[in-house]
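re: ur msg from earlier - yeah i can do the KG4 complex, just paste it... oh wait u already did. ok heres what im feeding in:
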Amino acid sequence: MHLLTIESTCDETAAAVISGEGDVLGAALASQEELHRQFRGVVPELAARAHVERILPVIDQALRQAGLDSAAIDAIAVANAPGLAGSLLVGLTAAKMLSVAWGKPLLAVNHLHAHIYACRMAAGRDIYPCVGLVVSGGHTTLYDCAGPLELTTLGGTIDDAAGEAFDKVAAMVGLPYPGGPEVSRAAAGGDPARYAFPRSMIHEDHFNFSFSGLKTAVRYALVGPGKQDFSQLELTPTELADLCASFEQAVVDCLVAKSRKAVRHTGHGRLCVGGGVAANRRFREAMQQAADSDGFELLVAPPELCTDNAVMGAIALEKLRRGDYADLELDIEAGLVR
Ligand code: KG4
Ligand code: ZN
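and the outut:
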């Protein structure tokens, strides 16, 4: 039994070949980081065009790595929600085309559920039930996960995603895209208590997040209220480090506080984290401390499975086992899909 998985929800074109036992036999990924860097963010039109160029070579590469041809593939899984419409359409169209050409069934993957399943792939064992946290460039969402496909949303961001806040702060201080790793690097050795940035809604009794006030507070700290021009900004290395560390700490504090609350609320005793921001070192350390002191198990996807990839599309094996196939009418769902 072999599954081909396709991922093109945002700016990574990826494909993987997964065995029925969940072993990764081949995995290929083409990143568009270089393409979007000059714009300090993903440009949807460019992303879609780049996916068109890359999707078939990436699929071919994954198959070659696995040493398999199309005859050995039993089903094709594709992330059809959520993401950028143009990007999603490229992956979905490729998957449908191969499904028809090869005569293999199609499976739909929810990209957010897959981000949590990345922990299942890394652990190599069952991780459910658990609390799931997806913390990426597009989402910051907490789930009660009864099973891999049985997710209930506990809460999420009401404005910016955590990764988006990292990317925007990076742009303010002149660091390249994607901003998360850059801000994190700049924060090393900085004083996380130098700037008293807000931790919105941290003590409120729900599981939602808000990062736009934090972003505004960083802007005020840099150029003052009501100003948008960052071109004259001159920060000493210490100021930059302190600002980045203080910002990073504020994001991490919110993520840790609400996740702890969710673990207590569900009683699951396990937290599984996926999405690009989960690659953040300060985040990992703080969450581990919380897990140790509260006594829950913490699973964070390894960095290469935190950011977008096709390996996490192995979640489709769960659908395959249940015979939960998609038909050729399958559409994308670009917007917020819980
Ligand atoms: O999961 P992902 O690859 O794509 C989405 O589905 O959004 O996440 C990308 C996001 C970007 O906003 C990036 O800045 C952020 O994850 N990110 C990080 C780190 N590495 C990536 N944020 C903070 N610290 C990091 N080390
Ligand atoms: Zn993602």
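cool cool. The two ends are 30 Å apart (CA to CA). ping me if u need the other ligands too
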